[in-house]
Design a protein that fits this description.
By secondary structure, this protein is an alpha/beta fold. It has nine helices and 15 strands. The protein is about 35% helix and about 20% strand. Helix 1 crosses helix 4.
Length: about 260
């Protein structure tokens, strides 16, 4: 009986620790947690499934993300300094008029304040958090691209969103990526998010991808495509940093 109680307590403690990690980081990876905690990946998957059933987490390939609005808020300031530095390199590229696209990432969210100085813009997004923040910026015209809610990422995706994007043309698209792989390019845990980003890239004259260096060399289940000759990568690193060398063939410019 004592052993059983101790085992139950240990499982409860794991769930609490995973919940804290999700709140702090917004996401966890099965392999990382298993390695750091010295437990099996099967145990981690089972714990994450329990948190998903409780509404605390949403399962994605290789791990889980925090559920609902908590996920966005908790990710917003994670690596915040690096995100803001990467995004600061994009401000000069913002057009004064026309239609641009902002994805639903917490990285690109940091770009919104700069739009106040460009009141002639129409700004499209498929993320409700980003849309509501855009609605607070005087002068610009926010456009929410509809679709089916992806509860793992809070983005609107699927056939309806595809049709909406196909009816638009963007002077520029500003995006981030869950991971950046030297061979696969930009990667997302959810295929639906990768699909909409690929479509947006095809409908854009220029694509700007802003990431912090922690995402370099990572991989996720679904990759999305851009045209190398029209794509710019902005990171928090110096453009000459050798850590960026594996990615130079993927894009036209690194800033």
């Amino acid at each position: 009986m004592f052993i059983r109680t101790d085992m139950n307590t240990t499982a409860h403690q794991r769930l609490e620790r995973l919940t804290v990690l999700l709140q702090q980081q917004g996401e966890v990876q099965v392999s990382v947690v298993a390695g750091e905690w010295g437990i099996s990946e099967m145990t981690v998957r089972r714990d994450l499934q329990r948190l998903a059933e409780q509404g605390v987490a949403a399962r994605v390939h290789g791990g889980a993300v925090a559920a609902g609005g908590l996920r966005f808020a908790s990710r917003l300031d994670r690596h915040g300094k690096e995100k803001r530095r990467a995004v600061s390199k994009l401000i000069e590229s913002l057009p004064d008029a026309g239609c641009i696209y902002l994805d639903g990432s917490t990285t690109i969210y940091h770009l919104i304040d700069a739009l106040a100085r460009r009141p002639g813009l129409q700004v499209a997004t498929n993320n409700s958090d980003t849309f509501h923040r855009l609605a607070q910026v005087a002068g610009i015209r926010p456009l929410l691209i509809g679709g089916e809610l992806n509860t793992a990422t809070d983005n609107l995706v699927g056939p309806l969103s595809h049709r909406a994007v196909e009816g638009l043309s963007f002077i520029a698209a500003y995006t981030s990526a869950y991971a950046l792989d030297p061979e696969a390019g930009g990667c997302e845990p959810e295929a639906a998010d990768a699909e909409i980003k690929s479509l947006v890239a095809r409908r854009s004259r220029r694509v700007y991808v802003a990431i912090n260096h922690h995402k370099l060399g990572r991989y996720a289940a679904a990759s999305w495509q851009w045209r190398p000759e029209t794509t710019v990568l902005a990171t928090d690193l110096d453009p000459a940093d050798p850590r960026l060398n594996p990615y130079r063939s993927l894009i036209a410019e690194i800033i």
